[in-house]
Amino acid sequence: CTFCAGGPEKDTSEAEFKKYGRNRLAEGKLPACAEMCSTKALLGGDGDVIADIYRTRVTTRGKAGDVWGWATAYGRPDQKPAAQPVPGPVPAPGGKS
Asked: Cα–Cα distances in Å, from 71 out to 4, 25, 37, 67, 74?
């Protein structure tokens, strides 16, 4: 969009700056939306790099969160549940415990 890419005028010219503001792409910077996006939903760059990022996201989708401590607190989806301790002997009915 023209917020970061400027317009049809010559890159970094005074006319471009007056009409469209700063041309971040001509300055070698990422668009502001991509730099400030907290969801990491915006992808940009070489097609192979984007494909790798997308593939990684798709293959890890639906698995336990990558949040620190998640696996310790809740376990991993592919992890078997912990074995329950074997209960001790039960006292006989009517006996003293």
From this structure: 40, 40, 26, 8, 5
